[in-house]
Amino acid sequence: MAPVAARRACNPVEPSGLTSTMKRQKKIKMEKKIKKTVKRLRVDMANISIEQRGIREQQKKIREKLEEIGSQCAQLREETELIFRQKAGNQVLLNLVCQIIKARQDRDIEKAASLACTLRDLIAKQKGKRMLMACPKCE
């Protein structure tokens, strides 16, 4: 091995003035700092993972609620459509009744009887069966 002076000549002191023990201590400090940072990052990652799991569960619940709301919306749409159809049917029946009343006021018995048969047929169709008391003129 070369004498100390020769070693120093080959490996002169760095401009910063750090010796090898100082370098080692600095390296150890850096490693400790890095280990501390890695440990903190792992804890942060674990916390983030837990938060993400919670977020996924909340999203799943929200998705289920939205699907439920969608099905309720579709059901309400169907019910509304049914009500409008019933309203239209009732309007037709009311118009026929008004025409029957007007025909009777005008003493047009044939028209009133024809309208009454039409009214009976519509009511029978709405109920899904033919009425027992059928008008002989309608048949």
Write the layout of secondary structure elements.
Elements: H1 4-10, H2 20-105, H3 109-127
Region (Disordered): 1-22
Your description of this structure?
There is one protein chain. The chain has 139 residues and is mainly alpha-helical. The protein contains three helices and no strands. Helix 2 runs antiparallel to helix 3 (109-127). The termini are far apart.
Total helical elements? 3
What share of the residues lie within helices? over 70%
- 3D shape: rod-shaped
Number of strands: 0
Radius of gyration: 47 Å
Chain-averaged pLDDT = 84
Structural class: mainly alpha
- Could you spell the SSE succession in H and E letters? HHH
Uncertain regions: pLDDT < 50 for 5+ in a row? none
Could you tell me how far the N terminus lies from the C terminus, measured between alpha carbons in angstroms?
Answer: 130 Å
Give the percentage of residues in beta strands. Answer: under 5%
